[in-house]
Amino acid sequence: MKYLVAFLGSSPGAFMERVLLAFVRSLRTFVQGVLAALVSAFAGMSIFDAGYGKAFSFAVIAAGITALTSFLHNVAGFLPDDPTQTAPPKRQSVRAEASTAR
To answer: What are the beta bridge partners of residue 47?
Structure first.
């Protein structure tokens, strides 16, 4: 059951924290997809009668759809929190860090 929750779970934290975390994770997914598109476009040229640019464009669109899906999955509030993900650590203000350093 814990693997199912990890598979279906969303990002932890309050809503706005989840939105920011989901955006960063979906951006990472998009960059991974674009990097994969650089290579997969060569295969697309063989399968479809298209040039590298057109095959690359389709692969980038697919990466964008995947990133959007990743974002929605991480933001979804009705899904349980994924126990394998952690919320980013809280940042202290510069003033608080300076006063604790004294």
So the answer is: none
CB-based contact 27:67 (threshold 8 Å): yes
The predicted-structure confidence for 66-102, as pLDDT tens digits, reads as follows 888 888 877 777 666 666 666 656 666 656 555 555 5
Coil vs helix vs strand at 75: helix
The counts of H helices and E strands in the chain are 4, 0
The span from the CA of 40 to the CA of 38, in Å, is 6
13: left (phi over 0), alpha (psi -120 to 50) or beta: left
Q: Which of 26, 17, 28, 27 is nearest to 87 (CA)?
A: 17
* Amino acid type, 18: R
25-51 pLDDT, tens digit each: 888 888 888 888 887 777 777 777 778
Residue type, 83: P
Per-domain boundaries in the chain: 2-85
